[in-house]
Design goal:
The structure is a single chain. The chain has 224 residues and is mainly alpha-helical. It has 2 domains: 53 residues, Homeodomain-like (Arc Repressor Mutant, subunit A); 156 residues, Tetracycline Repressor, domain 2 (Orthogonal Bundle). It has 10 helices and no strands. It is globular. 34% of the residues are buried.
Length: 224
């Protein structure tokens, strides 16, 4: 990574460039080692800044990664719109579940962030930062639910929203199980009694997605 000459930003444009560089450094480091391992000092060093200077742009490391989570929501909903847009209305639920499982598994850092956001990222930033994140994520959920509804028109808008919210939350948790620390991965591989401790993300996410979609209509209030 080329280290820019980081003098204090004197304009809105320069501030935006600084923030973009910080976010990109955090994205690169997080993708390499997992977001829990990355410190604010390491992010600052990656962009050639002192930690105290970085704090002029972001309050905490959690705010940086919450911004990246918001970016991930926007990017994923856009990809999902393209992938499900290629499906004809009324396709089998298995096709929709496969598209979602594959698109989420292809974004490991986003899955990691999905699990971390409610656990610690949202808890270590200002209410204003949480509000900004929630508005973006809820809009992305709505967009994703809309494309699911076009593929599966028998589902209501509320049911599509429930499905997207559930599958995204599940992806975050399943990704953690599917990607244990190296020492744990070695332990699971060496002990037959622990063979099922680590899951294969795409098949598990796809199967669970199929179950969720298939159960939405029968579970409607008053349905027999």
């Amino acid at each position: 990574m080329t280290v820019p000459d980081f003098q204090r930003a004197r304009s809105a444009e320069a501030k935006q460039l600084r923030e973009s560089a910080i976010l990109e450094a955090a994205r690169t480091l997080g993708a390499e080692r997992g977001i829990r391992q990355i410190t604010l000092t390491e992010i600052a060093e990656a962009v050639g800044m002192h930690k105290s200077a970085l704090l002029r742009y972001f309050e905490t490391r959690e705010e940086i990664f919450l911004r990246l989570t918001a970016d991930g929501w926007r990017e994923w909903s856009g990809v999902l719109r393209q992938e499900l847009g290629r499906l004809s209305p009324g396709v089998p639920v298995s096709a929709v579940a496969q598209a979602l499982a594959g698109s989420l598994a292809a974004r490991p850092m986003f899955c990691d962030l999905l699990a971390q956001a409610p656990l610690n990222l949202e808890r270590n930033v200002s209410p204003e930062a949480v509000r900004g994140y929630k508005l973006i994520s809820l809009a992305a959920v709505g967009e994703a639910a809309g494309v699911v509804g076009r593929a599966l028109p028998e589902l209501t808008e509320r049911e599509c929203l429930e499905f997207i919210s559930a599958i995204a939350s599940l992806a975050g948790n399943l990704w953690q199980i599917a990607n244990p620390a190296p020492a744990l991965a070695a332990l699971f591989a060496s002990d037959p009694a622990l063979a099922h401790a680590c899951v294969d993300l795409v098949p598990r996410l796809r199967r669970t997605g199929e179950i969720l979609l298939a159960g939405l209509i029968p579970s409607r209030p008053g349905a027999e």
